[in-house]
Design goal:
The structure is a single chain. The protein has 562 residues and is an alpha+beta fold. Helix content is 48%, strand content 17%. The protein has helices at residues 22-41, 66-72, 78-93, 98-117, 122-143, 152-163, 172-186, 259-283, 296-304, 315-325, 378-401, 410-423, 430-441, 443-451, 456-468, 495-513, 542-561, and strands at residues 2-5, 8-11, 19-21, 51-54, 60-63, 145-146, 197-203, 211-213, 216-218, 230-239, 287-290, 308-310, 342-352, 355-361, 369-375, 403-406, 474-476, 483-485, 492-494, 517-519, 523-524, 527-528. The chain has a 6-stranded mixed sheet with strand order 9-14-13-10-11-12. Strands 6-16-19 form a 3-stranded antiparallel sheet. The protein has a 3-stranded mixed sheet with strand order 7-15-8. A hairpin with a 2-residue loop joins strand 13 (342-352) and strand 14. Helix 2 packs antiparallel against helix 3 and helix 5 (122-143) packs across helix 13 (430-441). The protein starts with a strand and ends with a helix.
Length: 562
């Protein structure tokens, strides 16, 4: 790119840089966004299909989870990656609804494309979309159904809805019960940290054999064969250090002139280790978890006292053990007191899936629990884990917010109808954008019908008719194509699934629409646009951008293939 100044051309961009401007840039970005949405659209709903993703080394992932599909796919186009971020935000904030958010993003871009062709300005579109999104969130808040933290039945329905259409669906009755019990166990009032629910995958058995352990499973073995396999009525000490002789901080040299002096040193070390074990015994501990090493001599004394010990436990295991048993970690074992110990009905080393692990269970009011997931193959267990993570997320946000919505496309149909009424009160060309937003939301019920093999037009007409008649909770039964009351059928999901999906989809779509120039940048904030080794053009720039733009064609192909 060059500008003429007098007789001398002024070079602004290097000759081999790439730039796409105006309508071409908008069209390219919209196409990329739509291709991403199209690639996951067939996974939506109870009859959505799965994707098999194979990487260059032959690793296989079979999943129905939108964010997993998009993360595993090799997407290069920068605008397409902005849509992937929508799914990642949805996953972080809620746990479920990732496919919904991406499909809505793609449809907002598709509707915008039609209006851009009619010379509606992108900024006008963005403004109208934002107004529609704000109104949609208001309408959703007004229509939300309150649910209490102890309403186990509703929480189980929410967990089951999140699993529907995934590999865990056949056992959703068992699994939703486990998920709700797990989340209720770790809840601190209305604050829930699902990191306190540890998920252990075991290949072998059926999904229905999954179970909830009221306590913690530590992926370690006892340090000595002479220690007991199991301890009943365990008093647990958490030592935030090792049971070893402390080395001096500076290098020291000691000259020993006769064997007695050396023996004194060894006796002194042994005495130190014995004092550590005596301190644990005097405090009443019969199980010890250390986050560092345990000396061989200390192991001998521990085994002699009948104490089960585990070394090099992970820091997150310490956190879970502390929450589950009530133990307080101590940094100096000689300072331990009975009040620092935690309690568990049983601590035992058991075989699970061919691995020996330490089970800390039978804990009263455990604030940290473990879900053991089973399945016939590794791929099945992995997909069950993804379904469980989604379910844990939706139950968590329901406990935090206390509000739910009917599923099955009911809220989207109702929003579309009410937003069309709202559009009449919006002045100027933004009115067209609000109407386009309403049309875009109907992609959800339409896709549910398509994926279930029903006629999308007939289904949408039936849904609109019911909502016109005042039935705001009418949604699509994907199994037989009927329009039914979603709440009475138990198909409910958290309010935040819908509000977050609309919010992030709108933000991503408006950001993409406002781009009218795509330039192969040089070194953006110290990072490279191109590949990791930066060998694809000056400063890793133009070549990388070209790869990105070229990648859009592949992305479109991927969308078509999927």
């Amino acid at each position: 790119m060059a500008q003429q100044m007098g007789n001398q051309p002024l070079i602004v961009l290097s000759e081999d840089s790439q730039r796409t401007s105006g309508e071409d840039a908008q069209s390219m970005n919209i196409t990329a966004g739509k291709a991403v949405a199209e690639s996951v659209r067939t996974t939506l709903g109870p009859k959505g299909m799965d994707k098999m993703l194979v990487d260059s080394s032959g690793e296989v992932v079979v999943t129905n989870d939108g964010v997993t599909i998009l993360k595993e796919m090799d997407i290069e186009h920068p605008a397409a990656n902005m849509i992937v971020e929508v799914a990642e935000t949805q996953e972080t904030e809620v746990g479920d609804g990732t496919t919904t958010s991406v499909v809505v993003s793609g449809e907002l871009l598709s509707e915008a494309e039609t209006l851009l062709e009619q010379d509606i300005h992108a900024t006008t579109l963005a403004q109208g979309y934002r107004q529609a999104a704000e109104k949609a969130k208001e309408l959703l808040d007004d229509a939300a159904i309150d649910v209490s933290a102890d309403d186990t039945e509703t929480l189980e329905k929410i967990a089951a809805t999140a699993m529907t259409g995934k590999g865990a669906e056949n056992a959703k009755g068992v699994l939703s019960d486990l998920v709700v019990r797990a989340v209720q166990s770790v809840a601190d009032d209305n604050d829930v940290d699902t990191d306190n629910v540890k998920v252990e995958k075991v290949t072998g058995g059926a999904i229905e054999n999954s179970e909830l352990i009221e306590g913690v499973i530590v992926d370690k073995e006892r340090v000595s064969e002479n220690m007991p396999y199991a301890v009943e009525d365990a008093n647990i000490a958490l030592v935030d250090d090792g049971l070893e002789v402390q080395e001096t901080e500076i290098d020291t040299e000691v000259n020993v002139t006769d064997p007695d002096q050396l023996q004194n040193f060894l006796d002194q070390e042994e005495e130190q280790l014995k004092e550590m074990v005596d301190a644990l015994k005097d405090a009443g501990a019969n199980v010890v978890f250390a986050d560092s090493g345990i000396d061989d001599m200390a192991q001998h004394y521990l085994a002699k006292e009948g104490i089960l010990a585990v070394r090099r436990a992970k820091s997150n295991d310490f956190t879970r053990l502390s929450r589950a048993t009530g133990a307080t970690p101590v940094s100096n074992v000689n300072d331990i007191e009975a009040a620092d110990l935690g309690a568990a009905g049983s601590v035992a080393q058991k075989d699970i899936g061919g691995d020996e692990r330490i089970f800390v269970e039978d804990v009263e009011e455990a604030k940290s629990v473990t879900l053991i997931l089973r399945g016939g193959t590794e791929h099945v267990v992995d997909e069950v884990e993804r379904a469980i993570e989604d379910s844990l997320g939706v139950v968590r946000v329901t406990l935090e917010d206390g509000q739910v919505m009917p599923g099955g496309g009911a809220p989207e149909t109702e929003l579309a109808m009410q937003l069309r009424d709202f559009a009449d009160s919006v002045g100027g060309r933004e009115q067209l954008a609000v109407e386009a937003f309403a049309d875009a939301l109907e992609v959800i019920p339409r896709t549910l019908a398509e994926n279930a093999g029903h006629d999308p037009i007939d289904s949408l007409v039936d849904l609109r008719s019911q909502h016109d008649g005042g039935d705001t909770e009418a949604g699509l039964d994907a199994y037989n194509g009927d329009v039914i009351d979603m709440e009475s059928e138990g198909i409910v999901e958290p309010l935040r699934v819908k509000t977050q999906a609309i919010e992030s989809a709108t933000e991503a779509a408006t950001m993409i629409l406002r781009i009218d120039d795509v330039i192969a940048a040089g070194d953006l904030a110290g990072g490279q646009v191109g590949d990791d080794d930066g060998d694809d053009g000056p400063a890793g720039g133009p070549g990388g951008m070209g790869g990105g733009m070229g990648g859009m064609g592949g992305m479109g192909g991927m969308g078509g293939a999927m």
